[in-house]
Design a protein that fits this description.
Layout (H helix, E strand, L loop, with lengths): L3 E2 L2 E15 L5 E2 L6 E2 L4 E7 L3 E5 H5 L6 H4 L7 E2 L4 E5 L10 E4 L4 E6 L5 E5 L3 E6 L4 E7 L3 E12 L2 E3 L3 E7 L20 E9 L1 H9 L4 E7 L1 H8 L16 E8 L6 H9 L4 E5 L12 E6 L15 E2 L4 E4 L8 E6 L5 E2 L5 E2 L1 E6 L4 E5 L3 E5 L1
Parallel strand pairs: 2-29, 16-17, 17-18, 18-19
Antiparallel strand pairs: 1-22, 2-14, 3-5, 4-13, 5-12, 6-11, 7-10, 8-9, 10-11, 13-14, 14-21, 15-19, 16-20, 20-21, 23-24, 23-29, 24-27, 25-26, 27-28
């Protein structure tokens, strides 16, 4: 058998990317097709409904629900502040004796008034939500009231695991080699607002130093899972990551533990040191895989934005792969052959295997399911 299909991971110095930037609710799109945008530009915005606050107005005023209509001063849909009088009792015989009034506990608007329960539902102010471009590029499609599609030509790297949301900054190499462990002494004020490359490993105290110096993101080969738990305060499990509020985004290109960064990945990052870079740590390892991304925009002509039809990553002799099972987890190798016959493995099952060669020349064979293709 000459080739097979496998899960893939992309590391390339040139690719056409296409990103949808969609609002959570319908709103307003602020750009038009053909516009060139920067990563920091807001391309769409909307308002999310505020929190609903139940308020027993009849009880606060000291009247029955049926009497509330006589004293109420508001109506559904009305904008209110904490100074707004919701209801007012003018007192004994309307002379102001024992007069009472109830003001709103929140700013916002009146959602609903019930003469049956005497309750009003108040809604806190709407929450503005803005969607940014995230990467420099061109708007190639507009979805009215919903969002846009942005395309560009970039150097592009997918990571294995990450935490933290989208951020943009200048790429700064702090590692001298792919197997470096980042020394906290290398992090100073020159790293503020930057995305730094750490090499093979970064420890918790170094991450803390980076946060204090305003580093936006760290790209590393690996991280200790206990340091990760200490950083975010809980075990990740199989949840979707990327929305942790820890003050920094972290992308692991290889996995957990001290794992030398793939030479191709390291060389690519080094080649683009000093360039504007967009990254995020969003990760999902279940169905509908989401990988953390490193995007380094390049200059391009509009005619270059022709997205190739998606295809499955192919295993064939010469393909670069990463091992995703122990005992060689994280190691990079090259496929040398794909035997067609089924082979019995340690679990006593019959599977198709591949034969490969590590970078040091060592030969091996393993189930094809234990690897992923590094696409370029």
């Amino acid at each position: 058998m000459g080739q097979a299909y496998s899960a893939g991971l992309t590391v390339t110095d040139s690719i056409i990317l296409r990103k949808e930037r969609i609002l959570p609710l319908k709103g307003k799109v602020l750009v038009k097709k053909g516009d060139k945008v920067k990563a920091e530009d807001v391309v769409a915005e909307t308002l999310l409904p505020g929190k609903v606050v139940p308020f027993n107005l009849a009880n606060k005023l000291g009247v029955t629900p049926a009497q509330l209509d006589v004293y109420i001063k508001i109506k559904p849909g009305q904008q209110i502040t904490k100074e707004t009088i919701l209801a007012e009792n003018k007192g004994l015989f309307g002379l102001g004796i024992f007069k009472s009034e109830v003001r709103s506990p929140v700013d916002g608007e009146v959602e609903n008034i019930s003469s049956v329960t005497g309750q009003v539902l108040l809604r806190e102010p709407r929450i503005p939500v803005q969607v940014k471009a995230f990467m420099d590029g061109m708007v190639t499609e507009v979805m009215p009231d919903e969002g846009v599609v942005i395309e560009n030509k970039s150097a592009y790297i997918q990571g294995i695991f990450g935490i933290g949301d989208e951020t943009v900054g200048e790429l700064k190499m702090l590692a001298a080699t792919p197997d470096d462990e980042l020394d906290g002494a290398k992090i100073d004020e020159s790293c503020r607002g930057k995305i730094i490359v750490a090499g093979a490993f970064v420890r918790f105290h170094v991450i803390d130093i980076a946060r204090k110096h305003g580093v936006k993101a760290i790209i590393t080969g690996g991280i200790d899972d206990q340091d990760l738990k200490k950083l975010i305060g809980y075990d990740i499990g199989v949840a979707i990551t990327g929305h942790e509020k820890v003050g920094i985004t972290i992308i692991c290109t290889e996995g957990f533990g001290k794992i030398t960064m793939a030479q191709k990945t390291f060389d690519l990052l080094k080649a683009f040191s000093g360039k504007k870079t967009s990254v995020h740590g969003h990760t999902q390892i279940r169905a509908g895989v989401i990988r953390p991304e490193i995007i380094i925009p390049m200059n391009f002509e509009e005619s270059e934005l022709v997205t190739k039809e998606a295809s499955m990553p192919v295993l064939e002799p010469g393909t670069l792969i990463r091992i995703i099972r122990q005992p060689h987890f994280g190691r990079i190798a090259k496929v040398t052959s794909l035997p067609e016959e089924l082979t019995k493995v340690e679990s006593e099952t019959m599977v198709r295997i591949l034969e490969g060669e590590f970078e040091d020349g060592t030969k091996f064979s393993m189930p094809r399911a234990n690897v992923e293709v590094i696409e370029s």
